[in-house]
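Message: I would love a firmer grasp of how sequence relates to backbone shape in proteins. Thank you; the sequence and its tokens follow:
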Amino acid sequence: MGPLRMEVTLLCCVVVVLGALPFSSDAQLDPSFYRNTCPSVHSIVREVIRNVSKSDPRMLASLIRLHFHDCFVQGCDASILLNNTDTIVSEQEALPNINSIRGLDVVNQIKTAVENACPGVVSCADILTLAAEISSVLAQGPDWKVPLGRKDSLTANRTLANQNLPAPFFNLTLLKAAFAVQGLNTTDLVALSGAHTFGRAQCSTFVNRLYNFSNTGNPDPTLNTTYLQTLRAVCPNGGGGTNLTNFDPTTPDKFDKNYYSNLQVHKGLLQSDQELFSTIGADTIDIVNRFSSNQTLFFESFKAAMIKMGNIGVLTGSQGEIRKQCNFVNGNSAGLATLATKESSEDGLVSSI
């Protein structure tokens, strides 16, 4: 399939679901939702993540990414956590997720701790949302009051996971289309992409930029030549593609504005990163420049975008349920086909965020 045909096909896949998504309602979400029923939920979630991040600092980025991968598929309903069963086709085996998502075991640790304190009260969807905010704070990034009160889905949708999650080779047109499907605008796109200020990615997500960009036989011309040599040392031509490198070569485990400074000197790791700055005439260039020069502005925009994303397609009230275990719906443990428990060593294998 030629590059143009592939781009058109991908764009059609993105657009075809427009209108099918249950867009966000501010519904009954409230930061104080658990004030009376589980007042310690935030501190419980924080303690588990803090302990895990001591030995695996990359987990902070992985948990933010896990929240993103959940919300872009039928809304923020913890559908990504559901394992295969006789009736559920898990999103975990969708192309953007398989051998990519991390943090599933950590979410289960959190759920166990929360259930011990407040049984049957806190949803897995809210745990994912809280985990993302707490991960940002623990990485010295912004904090915000997380609207709570989501219910968990009774279904998953692997087809939507394959269609809705943006890929690392997306150009700006495809990125904007993928975010528009979710009701997110260009500023949201640039702000949420800033989550690539920490974490790591596999060589397979960007190796085409190093040796054979767009089937030219040459590297991506928007890639800094010094950075190119650094990446080639990590990702040899014809290698297995599983080696890891930092998204941000300057402060790899810190949540800051350096992602945007890297784009300005053509050191965006993924094509979808660099597209925000190197697309000629793009309205994203000014946003990148403003975020690069003003970390407070970036943090405020990131907070607003995370809250907006966290409201996509939420289930509230009598919708959905509070799962007892995050990996399967209540009463459906019989016939459970548990996926491999080994956590992947990759962050964001296919998704661009």
Summary: DSSP finds 14 helices and two strands in the chain. The longest helix spans residues 295-310. The domain at 28-165 is CATH 1.10.520.10 (Peroxidase; domain 1).
